[in-house]
Amino acid sequence: MTTSALPAPLSSLGAPSMPHLVSTANALVAGDKGLLAIDESIPTCNRRFARLGIAQTEQNRRAYRELIVTTPRLADSISGVILCDETIRQHTTDGDPFATVLMNAGIAPGIKVDRGTQPMAGHSGERVTEGLDGLRERLTQYVALGARFAKWRAVFTIGETLPSRGCVQANAHALARYAALCQEAGLVPVVEPEILMTGEHTVTRCGAVTEDVLREVFSQLHTQGVALEGTLLKANMVLPGSACPIQPTVETVAEATISCLRRVVPAAVAGIVFLSGGQSGDLATTRLNAINAADRQPLPWPVGFSFGRAIQQPALTIWGGQDTNADGAQSAIRHRAQNNQDARRGEYARTTVLAPT
Asked: Which one is catalytic: 126, 216, 234, 255?
């Protein structure tokens, strides 16, 4: 796969245009690279710090994110980094905005724009993602801060009667409205409808639910006038529930995932990037490698990764809140990112198999 240079920022182009969106979307999935998500909410980041005995302060969050965005040669395997509202406003110790540091390295800054999930009224056990109110104005601010793409996550739980039609339609509609607003602002929307691993469901049941959800999402995207050529899908792999007694092989997961996506994802979509969704880092990479295996029939879209904890966790453990450990932590970030780039090529050397966590 050939590489694609990141197009110029909007500030130097004037009004948003579809060619600009398409060029940015293509650049995000070019060169066998992927996305790195460091967009955890403040409470989520603090919980991860607490487990490692790291003080839960804004300064420590800033220092940890600086460690990531300044990792040498990160751009060799990472095309975009997803930030949260706190992080996109932060600076390095030298005073440089994180978004500027990333752009100077050839990495596109992205921004998580949803405001999390809330219990869905009238639908016990289901959640709906909020954040559409005031989104147009917030997107304008994020563009000014340097963002080039955005992300919105919806979640779906598999149960005996879940997800309900109401939950699927409500979240798909919100994803489509978000995507339309992003393209209006000149940002590439990353559309993330995640089927959660929680539960005892089989890989077959996950495949059926994933297919149903994606059909509704793409129907809503069409209704809202979203250009698929300037859109990325952040998809879950087709996986059994973490409590399912039957855990299939890596190859079975790859086949189920490919079969599902071929049936429902239009070829016009600029690319698919997988979320890790609670898998261990090695297992997520191994499954990505199987999906991209050289002996498979070519897929209609580039298939990459958008991993967070699956790339970050070893580095966070090494860093432990100590600046003296920064070099080792950055080496771990670079190593995990390179592993996933290898997996995009179908060249990841699998050494161990870890159970889902």
From this structure: 234
Q: What is the DSSP string of 78-135?
A: EEEEEE-HHHHT-B-TTS-BHHHHHHHTT-EEEEE----EEEPTT-TT-EEE---TTH
Residue 239 lies in domain: 10-344
Q: Is residue 124 part of a domain?
A: yes
- Tell me how far apart the alpha carbons of residues 27 and 95 are, in angstroms, rounded to a whole number: 28
What does the alpha-carbon distance between residue 214 and residue 162 come to, in Å, rounded to a whole number?
15
Total number of domains constituting the chain:
1
Is 352 part of a structural domain of the chain? no
The residue count of the chain comes to 357
In this structure, is the dihedral angle defined by the CA atoms of residues 261, 264, 268 and 273, taken in order, positive or negative? negative
pTM, to two decimals:
0.94
Kindly state whether residue 351 falls inside one of the protein's structural domains: no
- CA dist 304 and 345 (Å) reads 9
265: left (phi over 0), alpha (psi -120 to 50) or beta: beta
Residue 295's φ and ψ, nearest 5 degrees, are: -85, 5
State yes or no: is 234 an active-site residue.
yes
**Catalytic annotation on 192?**
yes
Residue of 126, 192, 194, 255 with catalytic role? 192
How far, in Å, are 36, 65, 153, 181 from residue 39 at the CA level?
Answer: 9, 10, 11, 20
- Residue 185's CATH number: 3.20.20.70
The string of pLDDT tens digits covering residues 236-267 is 999 999 999 999 999 999 999 999 999 999 99
Q: With contact defined as beta carbons under 8 Å apart, do 282 and 336 qualify?
A: no
